[in-house]
Amino acid sequence: MRLPHLSAGVLIFLCSVILSGRSVDPPYITLTPPDVTELLQEDASISGGLKPFTFARNVETHLTQDHFIRSDMLGDTTLLRLGITIPGAYSLNLLFGYFLPCEGVTMYVSTPSQDYITGPYTTASASGMLHTAPVPGDSVLIELRLSPGVTAPGTIVLSQAGYGFRDIFGWRRKDSRYNSSGSCNIDINCGGWQTEKNAVVRLMYVDKLVTSYCTGTLINNTRFDGTPYILTANHCIHTQAVAGTTVAVFGYERAICNGSDGSTAKSISGAVVVATSGDIDFTLLRMDSKPPSSFNPYYAGWNRSSNNPPWGVCIHHPSGDVKKISTDYDAIYTGNDPLLGYDYNSYWKIVKWDIGVTENGSSGSPLFDPDHLIVGTLTGGSSYCGNPYEDYFTQLSLEYNKYSSSNSTHLKPWLDPIHSNVYKLGGYDPSQKLCDTINNLLAGDTITLAPAAGWGYLTGHNNFNDSVFAEKIFSSTPKILRGLLVDIAKADNGTFGSTITIKIWTGDSLPDKQIYSKDILLRNINAPGIIYHALDTFLILNSTFFIGYKINYTAGDTFAVNHTHNRLADTLNTLYLKTGALWTSFKSRNNYSTSLKTEAIFCDTTFLGTVMVRAATDPAQIIVYPNPAGRRFTIHLPNTADIIRIFGIDGVCVYSSSIPVSGNVEIELNLVKPGIYLIHVISGNLSQTAKIILKGS
After folding, report:
1. pLDDT digit string (tens) for 115-160?
2. How many other C-beta atoms are found inside a 10 Å radius of the C-beta of residue 3?
3. What percent of the chain has pLDDT over 70?
4. 610-620: per-residue pLDDT in tens?
5. Helices (H) and strands (E) in the chain — how many of each?
6. What is the SS3 string spanning 363-423?
7. How far apart are CA 139 and CA 116, in angstroms?
8. Is the backbone peptide bond immediately before 291 cis, with ω within 30 degrees of 0?
9. Which of 167, 262, 274, 300 has the most neighbouring CB atoms within 10 Å?
10. Which residues have C-beta within 8 Å of that of residue 322, sequence separation ≥ 6?
11. Tens digits of per-residue pLDDT, 300-338?
């Protein structure tokens, strides 16, 4: 149930009550333990089935801020306390139906001796509810700390207390299910998958007075906007009431392989269900707030193809334990288990795990394909340590659009809001830079334009008839090349149709295979100045490559590119020439070690994903003018733009709009520094990039 709006008058009244009374020891209210016989019997067998992990039966109550007693002072801070006891409980977790503290009020929940403390809690979820982490033992102390000048706690209503009937702490009294899973489970930090692990979260929720753990995955959408969608199982969470109690814990893992227990401090409380299905086992949640950068979140990519994955990986929280990884190196096929209760043949079947297993608490966890994309979510199965056989993951291809009569029964409208119709989408790491540049400029370099001995310039038209110039770019990791920045010194056209040609080659010591070529009219180049050339399509480059240009010796043409001074004390030369059919280094021909003042702009493959690829044959181009500009410029959009974003070369987004627009759009950037900016426009599944140079006012 969503919290009804409270009038401002009520809140003002509750936050202006004057506290009174003397300081006394906090009262402990004893609640009657629930009957958990049935729950224990349900999990007595390890036979196949759904895989949530249930550890607490909740007891209903109704305790408000009026039950708290002014207990003590902590300096100038007023302390209000209330104790809860449920005899025989291994742990207690609390569900506040209303948590609306006044500004300056902070809540902590601890053991009576305060040797174990959770919090601080200062705000509720969007529903107004707050679900706290479990505390070991059968008694908890709730403490409200009122900052100096605050005279009332606000509206606080404790609705349920979770009676832990399973020992999720053990005598170690740690805030975790640490080491509770089977010994065959493999720690996530003992191998790879260090990016995708940051998308996997432990979910705690309350359903019908029962507190359970499942696993979920932060998942990307085609807007790449960081909407906090979490994909999990329908049999874990399927109603708004349950979603409101959800706590997602990020980064619960050991710091190192097989190290000590991790932290559960990085958590977000509260969610809404945006899509779910009782026919195929999935639920898509939208958390009430985005995970902050300190949580190191990653939005996992996905693959909605129905093709059989050649092998798969599952990252999960078995029995609520620290994050684990399981791997099946064999081909995965469609399968069915009627005991699970969902649509026939709606699963990817793991016949046998090669590494690890799944357990209760793993439900809702992702199945990744070899491309590190989600292809399914765990429903259940029979595997456990000693029996690594038969687990079933609901196929994401069916979750995506099998039941499409309503937006609330399939994933497509949420994961593809720009209607790109892509089958595969890469993940999104908001902590990474979108784009960066590579160049060969060294500290202390000065930029110049050297004349040739006869006429012309060493990096352009000259008496040697040099026609092709290539700058070597060193790369040891895969990169997506998106464009080039070139510092043009001279650009005069002898005829109206005079051109130069931008070229890109692969190669090692010398340029080898040409992989890109594009003519540019000389009359469209403003020189001197830096031009940005956006590639017609993305090029994925795995190693060293060359960027450069070819010039034509048309009468009256003059073209040259700025470069570094002669590095007499340094042997570094990255420029190569081609005259006729032979390549040679600039240094060997001219006794001049140099680098062109050019930069390759590459973008992160994780961010871009499949949707960001545009067809090279698409004739529609965006136009930006004037360029350079002061702070105001116009973008001509040949197609309706769904998203416009502008980034600095450092990858920082300085402008973003998701309001569909078309035609000529005027933009003014008043708070940015002068420099080069990349304009990124998405129109459906078409992506285009342009460059703007802002000079400021």
Report:
1. 888 888 888 777 788 999 899 999 999 999 998 888 889 999 999 9
2. 16
3. 87
4. 222 222 233 45
5. 7, 49
6. CCCEEECCCCCEEEEEEEECCECCECEEEEEEEHHHHHHCCCCCHHHCCHHHHCCCCCCCC
7. 12
8. no
9. 300
10. 176, 177, 178, 187, 188, 252, 253, 254, 261, 262
11. 999 999 999 999 999 999 988 999 999 999 999 999 988
Return d(Cα 187, Cα 171) in angstroms, integer.
22
Residue 107 has pLDDT above 80, yes or no: yes
From CA 161, how far away is CA 94, in angstroms rounded? 5
687 contacts 612 by C-beta, under 8 angstroms: yes
Q: How many CB atoms lie within 10 A of CB 264?
A: 23
Residues 6+ apart with CB under 8 A from 461: 551, 553, 557, 558, 559, 560
User: Is 621:687 a contact under the CB 8 Å cutoff?
Assistant: no
Q: Domains of the chain (ranges plus CATH)?
A: 28-164 (2.60.120), 436-603 (2.60.120), 623-694 (2.60.40.3080)
pLDDT-derived band at 606 (thresholds 50, 70, 90) equals: very low
Predicted pLDDT of residue 260: 63
Question: What is the value of pTM for the model shown?
Answer: 0.59
Across residues 245-259, what is the average pLDDT?
Answer: 85
SS3 520: strand
Higher pLDDT, 381 or 541: 381
Give the C-alpha separation, 20 to 7, whole Å.
25
CA atoms within 13 A on the CB side of 535: 22
Cα(646)–Cα(657) distance, integer angstroms: 9
Q: How many CB atoms lie within 10 A of CB 465?
A: 11
How far is CA 645 from each of CA 414, 449, 687, rounded to the nearest angstrom? 20, 35, 11
Q: Which of 24-28, 104-108, 635-639 has the lowest mean pLDDT?
A: 24-28
Q: How many CB atoms lie within 10 A of CB 234?
A: 25
Per-residue pLDDT, 160:
95
Tokens 């902070």 found at: 106
Cβ pair 394, 346 in contact under 8 A: yes
Mean pLDDT along residues 628-646: 85
pLDDT tens sequence across 550-591: 999 988 899 999 999 998 866 789 999 997 888 999 999 999
What is the pLDDT, as a whole number, of residue 172? 33
Token pair of 517 as six digits: 């070529």
Spatial contact of 610 and 540, defined as CB atoms under 8 Å apart: no
Distance CA 401, CA 408 (A): 11
Phi, psi of 606, deg, nearest 5: -65, -40
Beta bridge partners of 94: 161
| Alpha carbon distance 638, 661 (integer Å) | 10
